[in-house]
Automatic annotation (TrEMBL):
InterPro entries, alphabetized: Ac/propionate_kinase, Aliphatic_acid_kin_short-chain, Aliphatic_acid_kinase_CS, ATPase_NBD
Binding-site residues, substrate: 90
Main EC class the enzyme belongs to: transferase
Residue(s) at site: Transition state stabilizer: 178, 237
Protein name (record): Acetate kinase
Listed pathway(s): Metabolic intermediate biosynthesis; acetyl-CoA biosynthesis; acetyl-CoA from acetate: step 1/2
Self-association and partners: Homodimer.
Cell location: Cytoplasm
Family to which the UniProt record says this protein belongs: Belongs to the acetokinase family.
Cofactor field: Mg(2+); Mn(2+)
Keyword Cytoplasm belongs to the record: yes
Length: 389
């Protein structure tokens, strides 16, 4: 059995999935090494949800991502049957030019390393396992799948910031992220609703959150820009903010760049607003005023951004919820859908409560969907397509 390994490496975790490639792609296992460098813990589950591994490791055994890559690689070789034919990696930043996934070699890896200043919290982690595998198994095919690639068809005018144009050439432009999720959802929507019109907004509402305007299945606008901080407030990230606030914090609070980075990435969003939690479930369960403020603000900003994206599309045919909040919370879907009523969206309460794919009523002029995303399957598909070619 030929297999493809999908790797999604973050700052303290390494998520991986194995797909078999017998005619079509089928998920075999899902795993996660968490607590890298602190309290490493590995879990592996079968596609059906059975627990296959649940192990603690000494901190010294898994001090960093390269070590985690080696440990997971060794374990998969020992315990997992199948012939690994390629590894597909999630890479947050593909820079301004790459519109599709690419086979990795030393030259591409060096180029991708140059984009680290554009995504300092994600890019080095994404690239670390690639480097390890390139050194230890140079013959193994590796593919980089970019979160930015799906948005590269934007009109360049839309991707500019209104600062002197030479900064755009230097790379200071709107990139947009969550592209693998949007690409998957766009494909799924074409399958389940081939006849809906071509003007669609997809809301990826997880711990990271953004929205994307699709015209004829292609991204034309995203709420995320130069970094994954822009647009909607997220679990711990601020979302859109007046740059004057940053100047104020630098000048009046004497903050360093590092302090500002920590504030905007780790202490803001739902967590900062509520003073309680970054998790929508906690906020829904809480009676604290901070929880209500954070959720009200989240819903408000999604409504405002929906208006902006509908303007980019010149109207709206469908609105799609996806990712953690979008897939699992009928309450949040209902609250957000109320902000879309002026555009013609009308939720069907029963469909929404049971979680059908189509959750709007038959009299809704905007079709509303809740579609589970699958970024890992998207990576496996890109990887397979590239090595098959
Ligand atoms: P990530 O961006 O880490 O991949 P997910 O897409 O898994 O995130 O989304 C995680 C978030 O989804 C959680 O932080 C939580 O706020 C939210 N979430 C998950 N399940 C529910 C639920 N049943 N109700 C409300 N929110 C949920």
């Amino acid at each position: 059995m030929d297999t493809i390994l999908v790797v999604n490496a973050g700052s303290s975790s390494l998520k991986f999935e194995v797909f078999s490639v017998e005619g079509s792609l089928a998920r075999q296992i899902k795993g996660k090494m968490e607590g890298i460098g602190t309290a490493p813990h590995l879990t592996i589950k079968s596609a059906g949800g059975d627990r296959l591994a649940d192990e603690d490791y000494a901190r010294e055994a898994v001090p960093d991502l390269p070590a985690a890559t080696r440990v997971v690689g060794q374990l998969l070789r020992e315990r997992h049957q199948g012939q690994l034919i390629a590894v597909g990696h999630r890479v947050v930043h593909g820079g301004p030019d790459h519109m599709r996934s690419l086979r990795i070699d030393e030259k591409l890896l060096r180029e991708l390393e140059r984009y680290t200043p554009l995504a300092p919290l994600h890019q080095p982690n994404n690239l670390a396992p690639i480097r390890v595998l390139l050194e230890h198994q140079p013959q193994l095919a590796q593919v980089a799948c970019f979160d930015t690639a799906f948005h590269r068809g934007h009109d360049p005018m839309a991707d500019h910031y209104a600062i002197p144009a030479h900064y755009f050439d230097e790379g200071v432009r709107r990139y947009g992220f969550h592209g693998l999720s949007y690409e998957y959802v766009a494909g799924k929507l074409a399958e389940i609703a081939p006849d809906i019109g071509g003007r669609v907004i997809v809301a990826h509402l997880g711990s990271g959150a953004s929205m994307c305007a699709l015209s004829g299945g292609k991204s034309v606008e995203s709420t995320l820009g130069f970094t994954a901080l822009d647009g909607l407030p997220m679990g711990t990230r601020c979302g859109q903010i007046d740059p004057g606030v940053l100047l104020y914090l630098l000048q009046q609070h004497g903050m360093s760049a590092r302090e500002l980075q920590d504030l905007l990435y780790k202490e803001s969003g739902l967590k900062g607003l509520s003073g309680l939690s970054n998790d929508v479930r906690d906020l829904l369960a809480s009676e604290e005023p901070g929880a209500a403020l954070a959720l009200d603000h989240f819903v408000h900003r999604i409504g405002l951004n929906a208006g902006m994206l509908a303007a980019a599309l010149g109207g709206l045919d469908a609105f799609v919820f996806t990712a953690g909040v979008g897939e699992n919370s009928p309450v949040m879907r209902e609250r957000i859908s109320r902000k879309l009523e002026w555009l013609g969206a009308k939720l069907d309460r029963r469909r929404n409560a049971v979680g059908e794919l189509l959750i709007s009523g038959d009299d809704s002029t905007v079709a509303v969907y809740a579609v589970p995303t699958d970024e890992e399957l998207m990576i496996a598909r890109h990887t397979y397509a590239l090595i098959a070619a």
